Amino acid sequence: MKIERIEVRQIELPFLTPFETSGWREYANHSLIVRLEAQGEEGWGEAPVSSGPWYNEETTATALLMLREVLVPMLLEADIKRPEDVDALFQRVRGNRIARSGLEFAAWDLFGRMAGESLSAMLGGVRDRVDVGVSVGVQPSIEALLAVVDGYVAAGYRRVKLKIKPGWDLEPTRAVRERWPDLRLQVDANSIYTLEQADDLAKLDHFDLLLIEQPLAHDDIYDHAKLQKRLRTPICLDESIVSPEHARWALELAACRVINIKPCRVGGMTAARQIHDLAQEAGVPVWCGGMLETGIGRAANVALASLPNFTLPGDISASARYFAQDVVREPFVLNPDSTLHVPNGAGSGVEVDRDFLDTITKARFELTA
Ligand code: SMG
Ligand code: MG
């Protein structure tokens, strides 16, 4: 099948509150929203890039350039028989995985809509609700942190992740653990520590954490294996796992005991599912991470999280945790048991609010076959 037309939009959708990690702050979603057209049907995808190269090397500007100059022209020339063909097509492209994922997600959505099948069913999902938690950024004080966590716990979130960095790690984690002894709690360092700080990191073993996410360098696997031997708490890799091969290396080296799968980080659903399968064979649980997506990317994440080895709660919070208004007509809502429903409509199962999307579009281009 030929894809006939591809539209890419750069959006800006402000967050209700800024999101601060160990190294930077995000004020708005700066994703690229992709729309494919073929045989009278459409498919939507989100490439959730950030404005700066702080999470990985990609930015809104680099992804826009890659899509316009390389990826969209490649896809328009290709013959695509199934969504996995998009992943195969882009294997010759080095890096730029978030940009690639926007098109790959849109292909899954397109094929799903054409077949009248949900993305979850296409991927092999086994549940109609997925466990979710909330990721809490660095706060100005412990009091502010406790107030923010209190709000999320009251909203129904039963799993909380704290962003940590040197000087904002033991005290905030202790304070939250003391206030909520039974809360499922985990931390994420976004690559800010080095192996020399292993003894400091080992102090986090006192707080009964589900996991410590990406303590060391964004591209490291080797030192994480050394660090894991010195921690009781499972290490979870995020940034370092950019492909199924990287997952295999990490598993063989015992560099982690949990993997955060963000399908965008690995180029899309095809690679994400392969990593899921590898981890499952190794007896390593996975969970779905987040990149503060709009409802378009969120729908893809929720569908992925319905696969069997996603046994830990994801960073897939309700739309209201991020935005005053989402770009899908039915926002994602938190159920009282800290889950989100998996959409069961065709494709990703969400309907894009085009009028609203138009109001947040900063730039767009369109190419045809
Ligand atoms: O989507 O709720 C969300 C955010 C989850 O903490 C989150 N993501 O490293 O896991 C991570 C961060 C990266 C965010 S940078 C845009
Ligand atoms: Mg992370």
Describe the protein.
The protein has 369 residues and is of the alpha/beta class. The protein contains twelve helices and 15 strands. The chain folds into two domains: 5-116 and 352-368, Enolase-like, N-terminal domain (Enolase-like, domain 1); 121-341, Enolase-like C-terminal domain (TIM Barrel), CATH 3.20.20. The strands form four sheets. It has a seven-stranded parallel β-sheet. Helix 5 (142-155) links the parallel strand 7 and strand 8 (159-163). The termini are close together. The structure holds N-succinyl methionine and magnesium ion. The site of magnesium ion has 7 residues, from loops.
Give structural attributes.
about 375 residues; alpha/beta; Enolase-like, domain 1; TIM Barrel; seven-stranded parallel β-sheet; 12 helices; about 35% helix; binds N-succinyl methionine; binds magnesium ion
Helical fraction equals 25-40%
Helix/strand order, N-terminal first: EEEEEHHHHEEHEHEHEHEHEHEHEHE
Helices and strands: which structural class?
alpha/beta
For the biggest sheet, the summary is: 7 strands, parallel
**Which runs of at least 5 residues are low in confidence (pLDDT < 50)?**
none
- Total count of strands: 15
DSSP helix count?
12
CATH superfamily of the largest domain: Enolase-like C-terminal domain
> How many separate structural domains?
2
How would the global form be characterised?
globular
Q: Average pLDDT, to the nearest integer?
A: 98
CATH architecture name of the largest domain: Alpha-Beta Barrel
Tell me which ligands are bound.
Answer: N-succinyl methionine, magnesium ion
The CATH topology of the largest domain: TIM Barrel
The CATH top-level class label of the largest domain: Alpha Beta
Distance between the termini: 12 Å
